[in-house]
Design brief:
three-stranded antiparallel beta sheet; 10 strands; five-stranded mixed beta sheet; 32% helix; 9 helices; Nucleotidyltransferase, domain 5
Length: 319
């Protein structure tokens, strides 16, 4: 059970110590040159500002003995240069990781006592940290990988028309054995766009499971096996073979759509990939896979390095 009054959620120094233990288990390493030859400096006084005319006290400063540059645990991460206290960052990260269907930026700004603009930007930085860079193909042991597509929202400037052409399109792949999910978005989910995605993310020895959509007919020939559930004939689990279904990936879409419609309500197409990264991360690292809230939050913190996200004003997005 998570204690939201834990020291690293309420005290900036404890938050820094917690983050250092995650990022630097063997001691500090320089984000500029990669050296581990460093020394900790005493508390440093920063430049004078309107809020701190005498300069704020900076703890946790480390100096590299090779390149001679100074750094802290947040340098080179999504937290770098933020004026928001580090313990609030860690609390925001935990809240987003622990909320199954997400948390709105309006809710965060009320809970942390920060502006909505800051809360919105914080969540987008955390979503960037959640994005996976794992290149390992799914289904490498000949396991079943489910693939399906869904449609959500409305693309900017697109008139409403039959067939869902005006909606944003999402392709999701779920490995049944590991419980991992990877989602992708593209303005046109045609065979031309789907084929390279599936070839790059699914091992050839995998058993592919889809519905009867023609998108997958030729693609399925590239894998060891391709089974299709006949949804048009109201077949959702095949009699005699309970493995023939796409209920796993549809269950993921159910969580994703409940979050997007009930919590976020509207998402600009330019940000959809980050929302998908958020839902992918929580689903892959869920309790059913033996990962609880604290562990999930720490895994997200391990992904903060090398992912600076600068703010830019986007009209039409309400998170």
């Amino acid at each position: 059970m998570t204690n939201l009054t834990a020291p690293h959620f309420t005290d900036e120094e404890k938050a820094r110590e917690h983050l250092e233990a995650l990022r630097w288990p063997d001691g500090p390493f320089c984000p500029h040159c990669g050296s581990v030859n460093a020394k900790r400096l005493p508390a440093q006084r920063g430049r004078p500002t309107m809020a701190h005319p005498e300069g704020a006290i900076r703890n946790g400063v480390v100096q590299c003995n090779d390149c001679r540059k100074q750094y802290s645990v947040t340098v080179g991460t999504v937290f770098e240069s933020s004026k928001i206290p580090l313990h609030k960052w860690l609390l925001a990260n935990h809240l987003l990781c622990a909320s199954k269907k997400g948390m709105s930026a309006h809710q965060l700004h009320r809970m942390l006592g920060i502006t909505y603009k800051s809360a919105w930007f914080m969540f987008h930085r955390i979503r960037e940290a959640m994005r996976t860079n794992d290149p390992t193909p799914m289904g490498g042991n000949g396991t079943m990988v489910e693939a399906d597509e869904t449609y959500i929202g409305r693309r900017k400037g697109e008139p409403v028309r039959k067939g869902g052409g005006h909606k944003m399109k999402v392709l999701a792949l779920v490995d049944r054995e590991t419980g991992k999910v990877r989602s992708f978005t593209d303005p046109k989910l045609t065979v031309k766009q789907i084929h390279p995605i599936m070839m790059a993310n699914i091992a050839k020895e995998a058993r592919l499971m889809t519905d009867e959509a023609r998108l997958y007919w030729n693609i399925g020939k590239d894998f060891s096996e391709h089974n299709r559930g006949l949804h048009a004939g109201f077949e959702y689990v095949r009699k005699g073979d309970a493995t023939i279904h796409t209920n796993t990936v549809e269950g993921y879409f159910s969580i994703f759509k409940r979050g997007m419609r009930g919590v976020y309500q509207h998402c600009g197409e330019q940000h959809l990939h980050r929302y998908l990264a958020e839902f992918d991360f929580r689903y892959t690292n869920r309790s059913a896979n033996g990962i609880e809230d604290d562990q999930r939050a720490d895994r997200a913190l391990k992904g903060i390095a090398g992912r600076r996200v600068t703010y830019r004003r986007i009209d039409g997005l309400h998170a």
